[in-house]
C-alpha cells in the first residue's frame, strides 16, 4: 500500500511538470516578408479544475479606430474571419485539448500593413463539481513591422523572465514532491506502528484467554 501511494505521488508530480503553464509576453517586432508568432498565453489559476475554452483574435491597424475580428478557434477548429489574413494565419497554440491555455497564432509573410494592435480573448468555461463558471481573459500585443531585425531590450527581458519562471516552477514542484513524500512516509510508518500495536494486543488477549481456559480445566 505504501509503495502504491509513493508511485501515485510520483506520477502526479510528473504529470504536473508536463502540464506546467507559464505566461510569457509575446514578441512585438516582426520583419517584413518573414513569419511571426503572435503569442497569447493565459494560465488557469487552478490547474486541477477541468475547463474548455474558445479563442478570438482582433486586429486594429495603425491609424484605425476600431478592432476587426480576424480569427476564431473553437472545438471545431480554426477559422480565419478577415480576408486580409486569408491563408496567412496558422494556429500555434494548445493542441489536442479543449482546455486552451496557449492561444498563439503564426502569421506568414508579414507586411507593413500588419503593424498595429492585436487582442486575443479567452472565453473559458471552468467546470466544478456542482456548477460551471464562465471567465473572459484578454491580452494585447502591439506589433511593429520593420525591414530588418533588431533585438530590443523587451525581447531579452521577456526571454530571461520565461526561463526564471520555468526554473521557479520546477523548484516549487520539487519542494512539493519532497514535502508530500515525507508526509506519506510518516503516515506509512504510523500505520505500521498502529498495525503492530493492534497485533500485539490481539496476541496478548488470546494468551489471556488461553490462560483462563487452562485454569477452568484444572
UniProtKB/TrEMBL annotation:
PANTHER family linked: SODIUM CHANNEL SUBUNIT BETA-1, SODIUM CHANNEL SUBUNIT BETA-1 AND 3
GO cellular component: axon; perikaryon; voltage-gated sodium channel complex
Alphabetical list of InterPro entries matching this protein: Ig-like_dom (IPR007110), Ig-like_dom_sf (IPR036179), Ig-like_fold (IPR013783), Ig_V-set (IPR013106), Na_channel_b1/b3 (IPR027098)
Subcellular location, record wording: Cell membrane; Cell projection, Axon; Perikaryon
Endpoints of the signal sequence: 1-19
Topology of this chain in the membrane: Single-pass type I membrane protein
Alphabetized GO MF terms: sodium channel activity; sodium channel inhibitor activity; transmembrane transporter binding
Superkingdom as given in the UniProt entry: Eukaryota
Family from the record: Belongs to the sodium channel auxiliary subunit SCN3B (TC 8.A.17) family.
One BP term from GO: cardiac muscle cell action potential involved in contraction
UniProt xrefs under PROSITE patterns: IG_LIKE
Annotated keywords: Cell membrane, Cell projection, Disulfide bond, Glycoprotein, Immunoglobulin domain, Ion channel, Ion transport, Membrane, Signal, Sodium, Sodium channel, Sodium transport, Transmembrane, Transmembrane helix, Transport, Voltage-gated channel
Organism the protein comes from: Oncorhynchus kisutch (Coho salmon)
Name assigned to this protein: Sodium channel regulatory subunit beta-1
Ranges where the Ig-like domain occurs: 12-138
Entry function: Regulatory subunit of multiple voltage-gated sodium (Nav) channels directly mediating the depolarization of excitable membranes. Navs, also called VGSCs (voltage-gated sodium channels) or VDSCs (voltage-dependent sodium channels), operate by switching between closed and open conformations depending on the voltage difference across the membrane. In the open conformation they allow Na(+) ions to selectively pass through the pore, along their electrochemical gradient.
Quaternary data: A voltage-gated sodium (Nav) channel consists of an ion-conducting pore-forming alpha subunit functional on its own that is regulated by one or more beta subunits. Forms homodimers and homotrimers. SCN3B is non-covalently associated with alpha subunits and induces the formation of alpha subunit oligomers, including trimers. Interacts with SCN5A/Nav1.5; regulatory subunit of SCN5A/Nav1.5. Interacts with SCN7A/Nav2.1; probable regulatory subunit of SCN7A/Nav2.1. Interacts with SCN10A; regulatory subunit of SCN10A/Nav1.8.
Gene name of the record: SCN1B
Amino acid at each position: 500500500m505504501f509503495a502504491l501511494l509513493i508511485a501515485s505521488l510520483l506520477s502526479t508530480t510528473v504529470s504536473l511538470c508536463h502540464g506546467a503553464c507559464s505566461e510569457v509576453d509575446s514578441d512585438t517586432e516582426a520583419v517584413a516578408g518573414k513569419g511571426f508568432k503572435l503569442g497569447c498565453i493565459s494560465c488557469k489559476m487552478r490547474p486541477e479544475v477541468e475547463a474548455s475554452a474558445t479563442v478570438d483574435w482582433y486586429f486594429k491597424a495603425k491609424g484605425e479606430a476600431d478592432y476587426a475580428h480576424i480569427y476564431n478557434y473553437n472545438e471545431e477548429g480554426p477559422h480565419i474571419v478577415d480576408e486580409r489574413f486569408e491563408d496567412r494565419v496558422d494556429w500555434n497554440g494548445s493542441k489536442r485539448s479543449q482546455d486552451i491555455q496557449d492561444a498563439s497564432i503564426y502569421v506568414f509573410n508579414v507586411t507593413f500593413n500588419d503593424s498595429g494592435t492585436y487582442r486575443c480573448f479567452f472565453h473559458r468555461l471552468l467546470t466544478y463539481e456542482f456548477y460551471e463558471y464562465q471567465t473572459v481573459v484578454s491580452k494585447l500585443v502591439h506589433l511593429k513591422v520593420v525591414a530588418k531585425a533588431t533585438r530590443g531590450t523587451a525581447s531579452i527581458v521577456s526571454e530571461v523572465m520565461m526561463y526564471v519562471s520555468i526554473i521557479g516552477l520546477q523548484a516549487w514542484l520539487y519542494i512539493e514532491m519532497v514535502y508530500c513524500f515525507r508526509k506519506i512516509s510518516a503516515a506509512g510508518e504510523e500505520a505500521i506502528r498502529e498495525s503492530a500495536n493492534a497485533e500485539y494486543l490481539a496476541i496478548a488477549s488470546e494468551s489471556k484467554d488461553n490462560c483462563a481456559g487452562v485454569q477452568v480445566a484444572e
